[in-house]
Queue: 2 jobs
Job 1
Amino acid sequence: MSTFIAAFVVLLVFFLLMSIGYLVKRKAVEGSCGGLGAIGIEKACDCDDPCDRRKRRMEKEQARKEMLEKNRII
């Protein structure tokens, strides 16, 4: 049980230090490798012909962007 408590306390200390770092720098924690973009993948679904569900979602997103652009005030 003491091992669990010690591990929990260490974890809390790391979270506290990361939160203090965020408050000081105002910069979110980010990875150093660049993620999928570093290996040439621009999106999570990098297939040439997306599935039907993905196509419908992409159409909805495009329609929403067009509606927002059309109804823009400024």
Job 2
Amino acid sequence: MIWEVFRQEQAGEYHTHCGNVHAPDREMAKQFAAVQHGRRKPTNSLWVVPRDEVGEITGDDVAFGGTTDKSYRWATTYRTTGADASEVVESESEQADAEQGRGDD
């Protein structure tokens, strides 16, 4: 049986998928996961889940992020004819960083 392993580096952070292990039961899977995935990097906890129990939702199943245009919420949407206020310049930089981060996921 294949078990998927999710690792949390520090308390309060998200668990991220780090691989899988092959084991006949849950206890062996937890032991294998600890040896294979818990000792290489700092680890706070591991989740070990049967592969058959992991559900997937794709973009074909549902429209992620909605379809409503809410660009008015972003400072980068608005342009002025005069000099930009310092808050707008800082916000544009933050929004650009956020958009670039979302593109990496």
